[in-house]
Design brief:
alpha/beta; SH3 type barrels; Glutaredoxin; five-stranded mixed sheet; two-stranded antiparallel sheet; 7 strands; about 25% helix; binds zinc ion
């Protein structure tokens, strides 16, 4: 579980709301204007598999934060990171979209984002890359960086 609170921006008034992880499933409301802070459409419980063909529609056109993992089946660090990434997708479900893309099968996207080694996790907001995390970082470091997207 994510240890501390989530900060979620209200879609109506823009106020930042602190939401304890235990209340994440319970339909939190904005403390200022009482607007329900509903998970937006398009977020999933598990990472979405994307490709050169779908990267633009699934990731770049997505309104909101996205974490994309570039990985390869031959990469040991990736195999270690994938289950962690899956856990994070579930923890941040409704707040951050998670996607994964296989490096070797999708050379155009890898080239576009200058991904030469794996694993690399790109963090995007509204289609713009805001951070690039290289290597299999410990879960707490990933959580820290993911929270900075909210
Ligand atoms: Zn509000």
């Amino acid at each position: 579980m994510v240890q501390d609170n989530f900060i979620v921006r209200c879609p109506n008034c823009g106020a930042k709301n602190r939401i304890p992880p235990s209340r994440k499933d319970r339909q939190p409301i904005c403390g200022k204007c009482r607007t329900p802070l509903q998970p937006a459409a398009g977020f999933t419980e598990h990472p979405v598999e994307v490709s050169d063909r779908t990267f633009s529609s699934e990731v770049l056109s997505f309104h909101g934060p996205v974490a994309v993992l570039f990985w390869a089946p031959w990469c040991g660090h990736c195999r270690r990171l994938l289950p962690v990434f899956d856990e994070l997708a579930s923890e941040f479900s409704g707040y951050i979209k998670f996607a994964k893309i296989e490096l070797d099968k999708n050379p155009a996207t890898a080239t576009q984002f200058q991904v030469q080694s794996v694993p690399v996790t790109l963090l995007l907001k509204d289609g713009r890359v805001v951070n690039s995390l290289v290597g299999a970082l410990p879960k707490y470091q990933l959580e820290y960086n993911l929270k900075s997207l909210l």
